[in-house]
Amino acid sequence: MTKLTPGDRVAVLLPLPLSGPLDYLAGDAPSLTPGTFVRVPLGNRTVTGVVWGPAADPQPNLKCRPIKESLPLPPVPDASRRFIDWVASYCLAAPGAVLKMAMSVPKALEPEKPPPPRLVAADPQPGGFALTKARSRVLECAWVPQTAADLARTAGVGASVIKGMVAAGALCEIEAGEIEAGPQPDPHHPGPVLSPEQQAAAQELRGQIGAGFAVTLLEGVTGSGKTEVYFEAIAEALAAGKQALVLLPEIALSAQWLERFERRFGVAPTVWHSDLSEGQRRRHWRAVARGHAKVVVGARSALFLPFPSLGLVVVDEEHDSSYKQEEGVCYHARDMAVVRGHLGGLPIVLASATPSLEMAANVETGRYRKLVLPSRHGGASLPEVTLVDLRKDPPPRQQWISPPLHKAVEECLAAGEQALLFLNRRGYAPLTLCRGCGFRLQCPQCTAWLVEHKAGGRLQCHHCGYYARKPEQCPNCQAEHSFTSCGPGVERVAEEAAMLFPDARIAIMASDLLPGPKAAAELVEKMARREIDLLIGTQIVAKGHHFPLLTLVGVIDGDLGLAGGDLRAAERTFQLLSQVSGRAGRAEHPGRVLLQTYQTEAKVMQALAKGDTEGFARAEADDRRVGGWPPFGRLAALIVSGEDSAMVEKAAQQLARIAPRDAAIELLGPAPAPLALLRGRHRRRLLLKAAKQTNLQAYIRHWLGSIDLPRQIRVQVDIDPYSFM
Ligand code: ADP
Ligand code: ZN
Question: Mean per-residue pLDDT for 715-725?
Fold first, then answer.
């Protein structure tokens, strides 16, 4: 790191969507190394930013304002700063917008209140000091330094007794210093005995710690022990004095994972997700920045924490689509984790039972290594998957559980085991329509039907949060009480299950019915303790839970994710349904899966029935290769949006018209985005499709740089888009 001398001009990046850093005079701030947090004037405000490097324009006669002060915090590490620049450039985002994600807890940057002083018995005791009963009780406790309040409490005396003793010199203050880091995860805490396959994989990963950049795909069926294996890599990083980061798709719901970590390492890791309180976020951010937090487990945004000594990143369930952020800065956390590893010279472990085609392709070309755990731990077998053809075995009218599934659940419950019914749709019914005129209740701000939620007693838009009561009267034909619910959500399946299995203890697991992480953890606990017989859930039940007595999984609508013609629809369906199926039979009792579908002959259903992950991936890759789709080609999406439909249309047309010609790049659109109206904004989509090696970012920068759009129009760029809504 180059030191900047006083009087120099420096570039300061501010957490604002500006095109780059701004120049300031370093003034007489003592040591402004790049990365230092500083307070600077901007207009008539004062803003906190980060020294990014020497001034862009070193001309000394150019006017610029001095930095007000530097903050006593560890500087943003070099690798983090290069990471921020890299993400901004790749995602075509303002560097300041990326920096903002790294300083997402403004309060963590404010000066800390010094901890209250701690008192300890003076040694020797002052002469002539009258020892009362209360005073001697205090002295008995005061060999451990503690605050005045704590000391009063432990000794059972009033605050005045303590005060008097301090005044007399019988108790003295000691320097509290920095708040200590607290107990740390212990890499030598005994873990489970690994099987020979697990041992071999763990050995490989351990060998990568401290040995530079490497990406390893850890592939293994659900229950094969991937978590135990990457715990070994974490242990090695800890032993080497490094920090480790684990990304999980639903960290707020991962109580079981946290418990396992604690069992392995003796203490809980530092968690990072949006459900933390402000105070927790502040403490955790500082603990990471100071290097006190050794293991962080978090959601995608944890990648932007300022780790000073990161030695390993694990991305669990790497295929999970929740790693893609689609608002603000559009980035894919798995891909950016690889970049972070490259910039920091450290290993990345990607774990999955159903690797994404992207990662599989990188293994194929030799860029990434692959380690395989071929079987379930402890001899548990993978569940047998049976397709239920809904054309041959339809459920009764207005019901969703087919006769074969009905029978299977009955048998399962009679055997004293647990069952899970999976439907990836929250609420009661996805569509409400008037029996009289066919009118459908739609969100006024989005291109979406309103979803009925009986539990909440209302109709709700799943895109913008709009909600309303069910109207008494059809707004179109004025018929009274004419609305009828169409199709199922988990609430409706639960209603049906209660009717079919009246003696079963039934629970629903869906994000909107769980007020927070604690409620989710309690429900998982109840299920693990067998206080629930039949669980009905959305995709949040699919993630990582281990229920030893769960032996039957019924998929209510296997086709749900296939509609819509999304590029990755089949791949995602395969991954999600494999993961759900993987909940069955994880212990001694073998599991089975009944998968209800209208498309028994579809490739994805056949592959699921045969458990043929590799075959499915190969066939899917062949299709994509022929079409030049990712991972064999590149995509970028531009969403043009605004409140005025005509203006949006015009801007989109204009963009398409001036798009530079390039033989390697194909422009598709503009077309109305599937969600043509979202939160009251009209949307048109342009899609760029290009050969793999094309520099799409340079193309888009050049393109957007040559047009001046009205202020009311927003163009959102999404490199490597995953959602086509
Ligand atoms: P995956 O992450 O591949 O789904 P897990 O690591 O969650 O697999 O392991 C599945 C279950 O098997 C967990 O309950 C785990 O504690 C247990 N397990 C895996 N490996 C071992 C082992 N070597 N010894 C004891 N238990 C193990
Ligand atoms: Zn809406």
Answer: 88
